[in-house]
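Chain X:
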Amino acid sequence: MQNDDGRAGAERPRMRAVVLEEFGTEPVLRSLERPAPGPGEVLVRIEASGVNPLDLKITAGAAAHARVTPPAVLGIDLAGVVTEVGPGVTAFGAGDEVYGMAGGVGGLPGTLAEYAAVDADLLAVKPARLTMAEAAALPLAVITAWEGLVDRARVGERDLVLVHGGAGGVGHVAVQLAQARGATVFATGSGGDLDTIRALGAEPIDYRTTALDEYLRTATGGEGFDVVFDTIGGATLDLSFAAVRTYTGRVVSILGWGEHSLAPLSFRGASYSGVFTLLPLITGKHRAHHGRVLAQAAELVDRGLITPILDPTPYHLGAVADAHEAVASGKRQGKVVVKVGP
């Protein structure tokens, strides 16, 4: 590499990163130039990166809404250590441990890399009681749950809350967040998921054997839930419209796509909100809200009110395809996390 005057200059440091070169192909480990933080950014040495179902959809080319164009570094969530701060950053300094939903969509480089230059607004100080792997499991899940339950539904004390998919990546965090805000929580699942839901302190509902009318009667006296948080979509969202309390009921979905009849909701005078957590990353707007949510969530975590459930199988940068397969197969016992650091 040469400087402007033609003299040879030092090459920039390199790093390892997982790159999707074409949709539908297995991501590969590559050597890339280490980024430098620009204005408003910090350079994070990434220790761990959480794997989300969205990562698999992006890899398959089935997530146009994520606006990813290969070749692209994959990965959305991170936990790591700030090593350098760019111009204008005052919230963080070198050595700070941080976590965040930091890239992998909207043209932003992802977090399955040893380093990432990240908009500081997207980060918060890592919860002190969590390991790096545990912290990396939280950002997308907790921001999604927060935007649905807090920002949209305003869940509070004495609310009756139903979480569809209460043992899932977002669902198990939503259950804990609603309880932390004083709500009584019921959650749907099946098989071993029912034990997980029960262990979280919620009342499990086996959706395979329990009809809507039955659990409405036993859980709410037939009045309906104050809040229904849907993480499944499709027919489950249609059921959600029939499960809320008249007038004051709120349905929130993170998968409100496709065509749905609003008649059951309208006849109850209830409301519906959709959550699209990627917007700040894609548009560049309202990113500081993500940082504030993560900071507030970290307080709940450090009080012992939210704890992520991790799959115990270890994965590293060279085994990302195996991590993706574990998520795709459903043969996991919690959130899959890839160890990035040495």
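Chain Y:
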Amino acid sequence: MLGAVLQTRAPAPPHGVIVAERGDIVPAMRLLTVDGAATGIPKAWAGRTTLVNLWASWCAPCLKEMPELEAFAREQGANGTQVVGIALDDAASAQAMLQRLRIAYPNLVDAPGPADAGVRLGNPAGVLPYTVLVSAEGRVLKTRIGPFESRQDIADWTQH
């Protein structure tokens, strides 16, 4: 319900920007890793269920949940749900925070704005943290606005 309320107050995305909804294929995007390498999504995630967490270095609830996401990612290993972060931030700030928090799961960077990765992944209100569960086939399974409270909270949410 919170998602519906936030979407009603969100400005319309710019003309031509595809906003994925539940069941839709994630729109193709090219984002950079924090190290500057170009990555095509959702192609980079093909074949594995992926938890995509949008965050920023200035977002306290984002930073609080990231160690739990890291622990979840380690538990999942090479065959479980993969975790990918997308920082709506500048690369230097994102990289510094990832190092400080010792986050090893892959992270991409996008400039915040009306057509950023968060908007395209179904969050036109820009509320962070925002998480999307993407199927192995690249479809949006579910979304979540707000932080996870624990590793168990993450595990429960990823059951689809």
